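User: I'm writing a tutorial on reading structure tokens. Could you give me a worked example: one chain, its sequence, then its tokens, then a sentence or two explaining what the tokens reveal?
Assistant: Sure. Here is the example chain.
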Amino acid sequence: MNLSASELVLNPDKSVYHLNLLPEELAETVITVGDPDRVPLVSQYFDSIEVKKNKREFHSHTGRIGQKRITVLSTGIGTDNIDIVLNELDALVNIDFDSRSVKTTKIVLDIIRIGTSGAIQPHIPIHSYLMSEYAIGLDSLLHFYDSQHVQHPEIQQAFLSHTNWLKDKSTPYVVECDRELAQKFASKQLLPGFTATNVGFYGPQGRVLRLPLQDKAINDKLASFNYQGMQITNLEMETAGIYGLAKLLGHRALSLNCILANRCNGEFSTNPEKATQGLIAYALERITDN
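And here are its predicted structure tokens:
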């Protein structure tokens, strides 16, 4: 089946619509970051850079460290952007843009998120590094896809009961990281985590500036949730979407988090760039360690 112009949208040069990349410009190892300014903080470690592209918030550099080819790509904030990024990354490797048809042989991408996050457990220190083993999506993205087979309904049901989750909100979904990638990256430097992916930075994460919250105890409910010894550790805005779509599309994904805030203690990093730079160096070392 050929995909119509309205479904697979390409630019005049046949690059994919939002990411502005041609298939040959994407490496099979992809690092995602939220902030476009963080892309050069990653690519500064490359021995060479062959591609630099940008369109809107989607900036990408493709290059090499030794023989390892890597693309670093900014996603912007939120799972709405993750829907664009994951689908277009997959299209770049698994759809023939000339015939507009899905390829018979599929390529599996390794997608590693290097992001920042806030802890909701008091024992997680500022500037620590956390690997999201599971993520719970408090958004609605995965419900638009046939996705029940990649979710963990038993954890989801326990969460709904614990939090008395209101029916006028999207039903949370739980997805898991790729275990092979997790083994490759694991060390004593990484804390294991169960990450909550929120739909916003303020109200959805329990922050109050001028607007009152529907549920003032939301963060306490998240922090006190416990499923067979597994507690929610941190809040951010992309991981569950990355994990869910990666699994549905057949790719491997892992989310690494630099903890810049501890919401329990009211603390925020005084040097977030230095802390994040340390996680970038750690991730690149693991990626290039064959």
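What the tokens reveal: The two ends are 39 Å apart (CA to CA). The chain has a mean pLDDT of 96.
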